[in-house]
Amino acid sequence: MSLTVSRCYCDSQVKANSDIKANPLFENRNPRALERMGIARKVQGWKFQAPRKDFYHKLVYDKIKMTAYVVHSSGKIVIEASTKEPAVLKYLYKHNDVSASWNLGQLLARRMLESGITEVFYDAENKVTEYEAEGSKPSEKIEAFFSALKDNAIKLSEPEPVKFETVPGINYEGYTRLGERKRYQEDYQKL
């Protein structure tokens, strides 16, 4: 049995999609699109405010209760996973050992990928200072949880926000046009 493969050969002079034009009045109604590009505003808060608020999605992991969840900047829990869920618990020997922590990371990573979240904020600075104060390294549970997340291509840092050159608002120090004569223009807003 032979397989037939059909191929499309394009003329090199004809550009693909040259006849398609974008709609200039397009309105993107997906609220997460701007967050993924790093254009959406982050709530800054104060410098020494605790807990931090400058994130789109924050990862919270509790190794005592063996739960992990992702919180949106609005304060709502987006994704949640626990080793005490009946579907997970029946496959585990214990619900609070190292393998359970690794499986919790796998489960949360799968749910995050299914919902389209690939980058989350994790406040590692506070955790590292806790371990340095104790003089020890992170526990095996924490290392297993985060290795499961990294194996599934979840980044523990968010995209850097895009900084625009111009800041919207009134420039009180710049040139004013109050003394000028009014001029008629065909198009006041150039696209």
UniProtKB/TrEMBL annotation:
Q: Which UniProt keywords apply?
A: Mitochondrion, Ribonucleoprotein, Ribosomal protein
Query: Which InterPro entries does the record cross-reference, listed alphabetically?
Result: Ribosomal_L18 (IPR057268), Ribosomal_uL18_bac/plant/anim (IPR005484), Ribosomal_uS11_sf (IPR036967)
MF terms from GO for this chain are: 5S rRNA binding; structural constituent of ribosome
Q: Which domain of life is it from?
A: Eukaryota
Q: Does the keyword Ribosomal protein apply?
A: yes
Any one cellular-component term (Gene Ontology): ribonucleoprotein complex
Q: Name one GO biological process term.
A: translation
Compartment annotation: Mitochondrion
Family of this protein: Belongs to the universal ribosomal protein uL18 family.
- Tell me the protein's name: Large ribosomal subunit protein uL18m
What organism does the UniProt record list as the source? Dreissena polymorpha
- What is this organism's lineage? Eukaryota, Metazoa, Spiralia, Lophotrochozoa, Mollusca
